[in-house]
Amino acid sequence: MDFAAALKDRDIILLDGAMGTQLDERGLMTRGRNNLDAAEAVLEIQEDYARCGCDVLTTNTLTMNRIYIETHNVGISVRDVNRAGAELARRAAGDHLYVLGDISSTGQLLEPYGTFTESQLYDAFREQAEILAEAGVDGFIIETVFDLREALCALRACKENFPLPALASIAFATEEKGARTIMGDSAEECARKLTDAGADVVGANCGDLDPAQMAKVVSLLGSATSLPVLAQPNAGKPRLVGDKTVFEMAPEPFAAGVAECMAAGASLVGGCCGTTPEHIQAVSRRFKSL
């Protein structure tokens, strides 16, 4: 299966929804570590998404790079957790869905705000991408990154070393003033620099936006690149209830918001935090009705 060809040939590609918040609901708070400690639960979630009409599953490897694992004392092997994540997603995908290796933040700030260099981040991302590629993913998705410089490190690590498509998705804090990340990067700057660095798709996911607000970001991204644009909003704006972050948007309103993202120019869509198989199924039903 050639995901690069699918990017050229398909008008719309539907990705899956949240993994982390689905694991949280099962009381499994250790996220990527669950590939090793609760593999059946991870597989069950991915199989639920596979039945919802999506085209792509993502591996449960979001922050499973060496820097994050070591600085957060996760206590697992980088190779073991990423290989297991890819194998579980491939089992759920079967022969008819694509699998993207999920890569995200190190959880650390780059110099001068933090102590890590771009070369250290690059090496960590290259190591993770190599394991995912060896395990047979069809491409990479770099997502939920709040710093454009970190996203560029991850993108270059993927594109300079592996012949696979790479989607690069940024988390935006606001859709106003040209849309901005918490580091102040604008949507236009993100789209332009990610395009120049070799991304196959640019996009937005997670952040502090609801689906309608993300549609505005999609429009800004699309105005600055000729690449396909990805939109994976949360199930509404995050809200703090006690000590817990909740997402309250129901499947049908979520699907309506994703339709706004499509109208704004997104050709790849899916869900992020708080979304469930029911949310993705609602989006799939809209595709069929169109």
Explain how this protein is built.
It is a single chain. With 290 residues, the protein is α/β, with parallel strands linked by helices. The chain has a single domain, classed as Homocysteine-binding-like domain (TIM Barrel), CATH 3.20.20. It has twelve helices and ten strands. The strands form two sheets. An eight-stranded parallel sheet has the order 1-10-7-6-5-4-3-2, with helices on both faces. A two-stranded antiparallel sheet has the order 8-9. The mean pLDDT is 96.
Question: In short, what is this structure?
Answer:
This protein has helices at 3-9, 20-25, 34-37, 39-50, 66-71, 78-93, 118-134, 148-159, 187-196, 211-223, 251-263, 277-289; strands spanning 13-14, 56-58, 98-103, 139-145, 166-170, 201-205, 229-232, 239-241, 244-246, 266-269. The chain has 290 residues and is an alpha/beta fold.
In spatial order, strands of the major sheet run: 1-10-7-6-5-4-3-2
Contiguous runs where pLDDT drops below 50 for at least 5 residues: none
The total tally of domains equals 1
- What is the residue-mean pLDDT, rounded to a whole number? 96
The total count of helices amounts to 12
Helix content: 40-55%
Rg (C-alpha, Å): 17 Å
Global structural class: alpha/beta
Say what the CATH topology is: TIM Barrel
Reading off the top of the CATH hierarchy, the class is best stated as: Alpha Beta
**Mind describing the biggest β-sheet?**
8 strands, parallel
Percent in strands: 5-15%
* Basic shape: globular
Which architecture name does CATH use?
Alpha-Beta Barrel
